[in-house]
Specification:
Shape: elongated
Order of helices and strands: HHEEHH
Number of domains: 1
Number of strands: 2
Largest sheet: 2 strands, antiparallel
Distance between the termini: 40 Å
Number of helices: 4
């Protein structure tokens, strides 16, 4: 067997092994989304603790964090998402800041840390 043929067969085997089904891709990305959601919940509780009341109609901000398979439009393409649910607008105000609220980037920092640790 020639070296070219051997390398060609090896490349075909490696390429075939690297192909993952959408469900396998979602399992992998869901694990990453779970890590980010856990870190985001920890930071949210630390920076914005549940000290006042019941949190209203949707509960406290730190209790509104979840992860799910599928993209933001719920289409299954191998991606997974993590973040806030109904109280996302509150998280954005606290993260980015407003005229009267100084933003503390409690969402941005864990997102960057999660990317760097993978």
């Amino acid at each position: 067997m020639e070296m070219d043929e051997a390398l060609g067969q090896w490349l075909k085997q490696v390429s075939k092994a690297a192909e993952l089904s959408i469900s396998d891709q979602e399992k992998i990305t869901k694990a990453g989304a779970d890590v980010y959601a856990k870190k985001l919940a920890e930071v949210t509780k630390e920076k914005h603790p549940n000290t006042k009341g019941t949190g209203g109609k949707y509960g406290h901000l730190s209790e509104d964090i979840s992860s799910a398979t599928g993209d933001i439009d719920k289409e299954h393409s191998g991606n997974s998402v993590a973040g806030f649910g109904d109280k996302a607008f509150v998280a954005r105000f606290l993260n980015d800041g407003t005229k009267k609220i100084h933003g503390d980037h409690f969402v941005d920092n864990p997102r960057l840390q999660s990317k760097c640790n993978t």
